[in-house]
Design brief:
Blueprint lengths: L1 E5 L3 H11 L6 E6 L4 H9 L4 E3 L5 H11 L3 E4 L2 H5 L2 H7 L4 E2 L7 H4 L1 H10 L8 E4 L2 H10 L4 E5 L9 E3 L7 H9 L2 H5 L8 E5 L5 E8 L4 E3 L3 E3 L2 E3 L3 E4 L4 E4 L10 H22 L5 E10 L3 E8 L6 H5 L7 H9 L15 E8 L6 H4 E7 L1 H6 L3 E4 L2 E4 L2 E5 L4 E6 L2 H12 L2 E3 L3 E2 L8 H20 L17
Parallel strand pairs: 1-2, 1-4, 2-3, 4-5
Antiparallel strand pairs: 6-9, 7-8, 7-9, 10-11, 10-16, 12-15, 13-14, 15-18, 16-17, 18-23, 18-25, 19-22, 19-24, 20-23, 21-22
Length: 477
């Protein structure tokens, strides 16, 4: 069978590897904007063809679909989904892993997502206000007396999010004035008419639940946690993710089975609501980026319409059953026949990026990276190639996270092994990565216990999902 994979990052490298290793003998063709060496390895291994071009262009993708005539497709990143690339496959009669653009609005528009959750009374929803006029947003920030999160109204790769925790009354005005100065910058990321969304701020450990859904059957994947900030101990600018952990088993050390099931129920209800709202079945991966909070327990921060990256690198290698076949069954809407066996051992992912990421893509681009792949694999580290292009015999950075290293082992041993593997990677620029990924589990467990006590107490008192407001004007929500 022929498969057409779209995307060019580490997530797509992980998907390509799973397809290439399938006993079903898939022939993998791929479309990328540059030559990803990991994807190329899978394409070459299966005697497929590699196409380079604009992965967001429906016209270009349609040409390749007609040339390859695949049995099914797999779309990795979100942007092609937003542009309607999944629609192209289905219009050509080709099954595909990835929702139509109408359904991908769950990720593309934070306003659409929040309105959907409130309209259909889905648990884990946060209160919010959306603003077209930036002056109205500024006035709201200056007048409202609670803790808030200010975000661009649409998906912009994690950029522009600002949070204010109103814990020190004597600093309230100063914090608000500082936050309003960044409103124009936040809005500059957005093309939509609605520019800004302001949400109530919540706190707790974050995690992601990816759910496979073909419109009939839903299968939850193992949980993962993403480490978004650029530097150690969760400081620095937000990134696409500097690493991830998954496990043990289907969960995480700080999320219990009941919370896992509640999270799954929230995502299932959302898939049903999307169908009611759009008239289309959601076929692909629907991922809840969640936080365990004192208001709801499992709470939705945002949704992905695809696998997260680097979460995919933490999850996919732990699937012991034929994940390539699972992707085929998902695309062809026969997911009820899928069997997923998970390695109970945890995994740790560490992303490596050139200096300049995430704020200065130009500074992080066009650097040479040298990798002793054989030695890294001998040490027990799996390597996925991300924003790095194979140009002749050299690996050249493209401005984002270049590599993701993965180890399946006890959290501490995996982290120690990653330390050793990184010694076999060098560059003509400084490389940034985080040592603390997988090493702060106890802190997360302690934080979750505090939050769990809070939401359980509120649930007993009939206050589940209810939060109290304070503001100088008596509450503005």
């Amino acid at each position: 069978m022929k498969v057409l994979l779209i995307g060019d990052g580490a997530r797509e490298n992980a998907l390509a590897e799973a397809l290439a290793n399938s006993p079903k003998g898939y022939k993998i063709h791929a479309i990328s904007s540059y030559t990803n060496p990991g994807i190329k390895e899978a394409v070459d291994k299966t005697n497929g063809k590699y196409f380079k071009g604009n992965i967001n262009s429906v016209e270009f993708v349609k040409e390749i679909v007609k040339e390859v005539n695949p049995d099914f497709g797999v779309i990795g990143p979100e942007d092609p989904l937003f542009h309607g690339v999944a629609n192209v496959f289905r219009e050509e009669g080709i099954p595909v892993v990835g929702p139509d653009k109408e359904c991908a609005m769950i990720e593309k528009s934070k306003v659409w997502m929040r309105e959907l959750m409130w309209k259909y009374n889905i648990p884990g929803r946060l209160r919010f206000k959306a603003f077209e006029d930036l002056r109205d947003a500024i006035n709201f920030i200056l007048e409202y007396g609670g803790s808030i999160a200010v975000k661009p109204s649409e998906q912009v790769g994690g950029k522009g999010v600002k949070v204010i925790a109103d814990l020190q009354a004597y600093l309230s005005n100063e914090k608000r004035n500082a936050l309003t100065k960044g409103i124009n910058g936040i809005a500059s990321y957005v093309n939509d008419k609605v520019k800004i969304i302001i949400e109530e701020k919540v706190d707790g450990p974050e995690y992601t639940l990816h759910v496979l859904t073909d419109g009939y059957t839903q299968i939850p994947m193992p949980l993962a946690q993403d480490y978004k900030h650029a530097y150690e101990d969760g400081i620095g600018p937000e990134t696409g993710g500097m690493g991830s952990i998954s496990g043990p088993k289907e969960g995480l050390p700080f999320i219990n089975e009941e919370e896992y099931e509640k999270s799954f129920e929230i995502v299932k209800l959302t898939a049903e609501a999307i169908k009611k709202e759009t008239g289309k079945d959601y076929v692909g991966i629907l991922s809840g980026q969640m936080m365990l909070t004192g208001i709801w327990g499992p709470t939705i921060i945002e949704y992905y319409s695809r696998f997260g990256d680097p979460e995919a690198s933490a999850i996919i290698p732990r699937i012991e059953s034929d994940f390539g076949e699972v992707l085929e069954l998902l695309a062809t809407r026969r997911l009820s026949k899928a069997k997923i066996k998970v390695n109970p051992t945890p995994s740790v992912v560490r992303a490596i990026a050139p200096l300049g990421y995430p704020l200065n893509k130009t500074m992080a681009s066009n650097h040479i990276i040298n990798i002793d792949v054989q030695k890294i694999r001998e040490l027990g580290c799996k390597i996925y190639f991300g924003s790095v292009s194979l140009e002749g015999m050299q690996l050249v950075t493209k401005g984002s996270r270049a590599l993701e290293l993965v180890v399946i082992n006890d959290f501490k041993e995996a982290s120690d092994k990653l330390d050793k593997c990184i010694n076999y990677i060098s560059s003509d620029t400084k490389l940034i990565f985080r040592h603390d990924i997988g090493r702060t589990i106890e802190d997360q467990v302690e934080k979750a216990e505090i939050v769990r006590y809070t939401y359980k107490s509120r649930e007993k008192k009939g206050l589940f999902g209810v939060s109290a407001d304070w503001s100088p004007n008596g509450g503005l929500w």
